[in-house]
Write a structure and sequence with these properties.
This protein is mainly α and about 110 residues long. The protein is built from six helices and no strands.
């Protein structure tokens, strides 16, 4: 039987998650809404934000409220809810796979 020793685990204080630039920020959503309300074209809005026109178009289409209006804070909440959707891991969801992995790890 082998005995292994491991280094002590150090707890690192949790820092607020930094959202990737890949996603629209609330500030960008506010700008998109304001410019869209003023009648600015989607291409101009996209160019002003450094985004693809399809991103702006998709944002306006996907995040409308029940009345069909784009509201940036409502859109931000919808995006946050979609992003935080809990998802069960593959091993936790398949008892047979979990048993197999534990058996194989037990061989070490």
């Amino acid at each position: 039987m082998r005995v292994r020793s491991y280094a002590a685990i150090t707890m690192v204080p949790e820092q607020p998650a930094v959202i990737s630039a890949r996603y629209l920020s609330e500030e960008e959503r506010i700008t998109i809404a304001a410019r869209h309300r003023c009648g600015v074209s989607l291409r101009s809005i996209a160019a002003g934000r450094g985004r693809a026109p399809s991103t702006v178009s998709r944002e306006l289409r996907r995040n409308r409220n029940a009345a069909g209006q784009y509201r940036p804070h409502y859109a931000q909440n919808k995006a946050r809810t979609r992003r935080q959707r809990p998802r069960q891991g593959k091993i936790a969801g398949l008892p047979e796979l979990k048993a197999y992995v534990q058996a194989m790890l037990g061989r070490w």
